[in-house]
Amino acid sequence: MPPPVLLSRGFDPLLGIFTGCLAYYLYETNPRTSLPAEQRLAALVQWKWAKWQLERNNRLAALEREAEATFSKENGN
Is the pLDDT of residue 53 over 80? Predict the structure, then answer.
């Protein structure tokens, strides 16, 4: 017996994702349960993105310094 399907095999996951996103949006914007601005998902994503960029820039700067040191060692400068 095939598993029960609400609409279709492809549309059911999309409906679930949409419903979950809508529920979370309503949870964050409901006047009775609204979160402070610094605790919302958008603020968390911005903080994580800034943290990731800072770590990435530090890592790239370290690699650049290492490459310059290796290059200057090879050229005898």
Answer: yes
List C-alpha distances in Å: 71 to 34, 58, 61, 66, 77.
Answer: 55, 20, 15, 9, 9
Q: Per-residue pLDDT averaged across 29-54, rounded? A: 91
Nearest to 4 by CA among 12, 52, 75: 12
Q: Distance between CA atoms of 46 and 40, rounded to whole angstroms?
A: 10
Residue 10 DSSP one-character state: T
Please tell me the distance from the alpha carbon of residue 40 to that of residue 52, in angstroms, as a whole number.
19
Q: Nearest-CA neighbor of 40 among 30, 52, 50? A: 30
Q: Model pTM?
A: 0.59
Going along 1-77, which residue ranges are E strands?
A: none
Gap between the Cα atoms of 1 and 21, Å rounded: 32
